[in-house]
Write a structure and sequence with these properties.
This protein has 256 residues and is α/β, with parallel strands linked by helices. Helix content is 20%, strand content 27%. The protein contains 7 helices and 15 strands. A 6-stranded mixed sheet has the order 5-7-9-11-14-15, with no helix packed on it. Helix 2 packs parallel to helix 4.
């Protein structure tokens, strides 16, 4: 018999934890016309990536005045281009007050997110309390890795291939206008001309490997480079792409 039938109460929803890879717009200053022009330019280079994505405004490097930061203008501009601003990361008290007034979620800045818990006190035993016996260590059985999804046919323009748990291995080209996504690594044994998004659930250790880098966009754990940025780094050669210190780094693949 189900819990609902036993208790006689049926709830209309449940809350569950979710890990979602988010794109952050790192704002340095805000001028409405320039903001929209820059946004339009970025979208034109990878329109499929930006369509209907949720966006976080990062204020950790913002240098403008609080009074000039109009979140309603930012939200409106983004909505006109089918981008949904859902929250603000970092910022001072005034900026966060303005964001709250625009009904945006407030996320901690880097210094708050990366702060480590001080465990010194947790190891201190009061003088009048006996120390607890230390339990013997329990050997952990490593979790079995999720199986890779293998695609042997070319991924054509307009197609999307998704590996929701493990790696994605493609034994053929990824054409322009196609999109490949994976929770883990992406391997393309051919030219990568479309969009490749690895570590989509936030795995920063994920990598992208390809035999010829010609991509419209490459993303790892929400950090991305578009073709304009990639053309100075191993363009049309065999490379691997990984995340280091929140930056995508392209290095050549060593050939046997």
């Amino acid at each position: 018999m189900s819990d609902t039938a036993t208790s006689g109460v049926q709830h209309c929803f449940q809350l569950k934890s979710a890990s979602v890879s988010m794109t952050a717009l790192e704002l340095y200053y805000f001028e409405n016309d320039e903001f929209e022009e820059t946004l339009r330019d970025k979208i034109s280079q990878a329109p499929g990536f930006f369509k209907d994505i949720p966006l976080i405004i990062s204020l950790e490097k913002y240098e403008g005045l609080s009074s000039e930061l109009d979140f309603f203008k930012i939200i409106g501009t983004c909505r006109r281009h089918n981008i949904h601003v859902i929250g603000v990361r970092g910022g001072n008290d005034d900026q966060r007050r303005l964001a709250r007034g625009a009904a945006l979620a407030l996320l901690p800045g880097g210094s708050q997110r990366d702060r480590q818990v001080d465990t010194a006190d947790s190891h201190t035993t009061a003088a009048n309390e006996p120390a607890e016996a230390t339990a013997a260590p329990v050997a952990e059985v490593p979790a079995e890795p999720a199986p890779a999804r293998i695609i042997s046919q070319p991924v054509r323009s307009g197609q999307q291939v998704y590996a929701p748990e493990g790696d994605l291995i493609i034994l053929a080209p990824v054409q322009a206008g196609a999109e490949v996504l994976a929770a883990g690594n992406i391997h393309v044994y051919g030219p990568l001309r479309g969009r490749a998004l690895a570590g989509i659930h936030g795995a920063q250790s994920a990598r992208v490997f390809c035999q010829s880098l010609e991509a419209e966009l490459v993303s790892i754990a929400g950090h991305y480079k578009i073709s304009e940025d990639l053309q100075d780094h191993g363009w049309k050669t065999a490379v691997q792409i990984q995340l280091r210190d929140d930056l995508l780094v392209v290095t050549p693949l060593e050939r046997a």
